[in-house]
Design brief:
Blueprint (H helix, E strand, L loop, with lengths): L2 H22 L3 H15 L8 H20 L3 H23 L2 H7 L5 H11 L4 H9 L7 H25 L4 H27 L7 H20 L4 H16 L2 H25 L3 H6 L1 H19 L11 H8 L4 H12 L5 H25 L2 H5 L1
Length: 373
């Protein structure tokens, strides 16, 4: 297929996913993964077949991680960390200390694949929590603020675990660490002033000023053989205050990623899934998917602070969601050869269960705002 026609077709799929998602009130990413799976199986369109598709999907994953970091403000973290940290630790450890053991000893996976599965499934979905809380106008409530902060901390811990477990030793990693330690504090302190200086000039310089350090960190991570998740996430967190105070600049940056490359990331992920592996591993996927949600809830429920205990089931369900970071981690694992296509497909199926089941249960039966109204 002609490259431009292929890109046009992918954009058609992205638009279709958005329309379907709007109809059901779910994240468009879920339907982009499913549509990517469909075209991969039926038409044989896979990201590996188009170099530009793979490259843009990688950029989409980096942008998605960066945007996730911008959703968390330092002031909110300062207010909520005491309530959120126990939730985050319980959410992460519930999966990280159980799933790798199960996959290694029961499923016979390699040590690397088992550890990656534990890290990938330990996340809490930024995309889903954002849709449910922020777009519903509930992020500023006590419950919403605690969940968002706990979500940020869970994914930060998971990103650190991924970096520690799979970063190869070498001078390149040291250079990356030094770059992060230099760029992130500078971005937090001076980004707002720089953005103000270039505001309103033609050529959208604000967007370029954000993309430059982000792509630099991602490039250094690629040279070091490390996932760009942690640097991009920390840089997004450092930029959160500056961008949240400058809505026009933030809107432009979001448009660059969300309007184009993020959709390609999820479509590419779906195209890499094997339908044969999904069918053959259906029982494993169901057991792992619902078992993961149950584990998270069992660990998270006792850690909900006293003032929020009446909403503890709702909080535990949202902390059990999965999607964004798990997909980024799995794509990295597939590219680095830590997991094969069959393992990737099983884990993607597990993540989709984690995206749908707890979200629907939380909104249908345990939504505290619906109960109060």
């Amino acid at each position: 297929m002609n490259d431009l026609l292929a890109l046009a077709f992918l954009m058609f799929l992205a638009v279709s996913a958005q329309l379907i998602a709007s109809r059901f009130g779910l994240s468009a990413a879920i339907f982009e993964i499913l549509l990517g799976l469909a075209v991969g199986q039926v038409l044989g369109i896979r990201s590996a077949d188009f170099e530009w598709f793979s490259f843009l999907a990688i950029l989409g994953g980096i942008g998605l991680t960066f945007l996730a970091g911008t959703e968390m403000e330092l002031e909110r973290m300062r207010r909520q960390w005491k309530s959120s940290l126990p939730l985050a630790l319980a959410s992460f450890l519930s999966v990280f200390i159980t799933v790798p053991l199960a996959m290694y000893y029961l499923a016979g996976w390699s040590l690397d694949a088992s550890l990656l599965s534990g890290v990938a499934l330990s996340e809490t979905s930024v995309a889903i929590v954002y849709v449910v809380l922020v777009e519903g106008g509930r992020a500023r409530t006590d419950v919403g603020s605690v969940i968002l902060a706990a979500c940020f901390l869970t994914n930060l811990i998971a990103s650190i675990a991924l970096a520690v477990l799979f970063a190869p030793p070498g001078i390149e990693v040291l250079i990356l660490v030094l770059a992060v330690l230099l760029i992130v504090p500078l971005a937090y302190r001076y980004a707002g002033r720089v953005l103000d200086r270039f505001k309103g000039r033609p050529g959208e310089p604000e967007v370029k000023l954000v993309l430059l350090p982000l792509l630099l960190l991602a490039g250094l991570a690629s040279v070091a053989g490390v996932a760009a998740v942690l640097p991009a996430y920390l840089f997004g967190f450092a930029m959160s205050r500056s961008l949240n105070e400058r809505k026009e600049a933030w809107s432009k940056v979001r448009t660059v990623f969300l309007g184009f490359m993020v959709s390609l990331f999820f479509l590419a992920a779906g195209s890499n899934v094997s339908m044969e592996a999904l069918i053959a591993g259906a029982l494993i996927i169901l057991a792992l998917g619902f078992g993961r949600v149950l584990l998270k809830m069992v660990f998270v429920l006792p850690t909900v602070s006293g003032s929020l205990r009446k909403d503890r089931v709702y909080i535990a369900l949202l902390m059990s969601t999965s999607l964004t970071f798990g997909m980024v981690f799995l794509q990295f694992g597939l590219e680095q050869g830590l997991i094969d296509t069959t393992q990737f497909s099983i884990l993607v199926g597990t993540i989709i269960i984690g995206a749908l089941a707890p979200t629907l249960a939380a909104q249908r039966w345990f939504d505290p705002w619906t109960k109060r109204n």
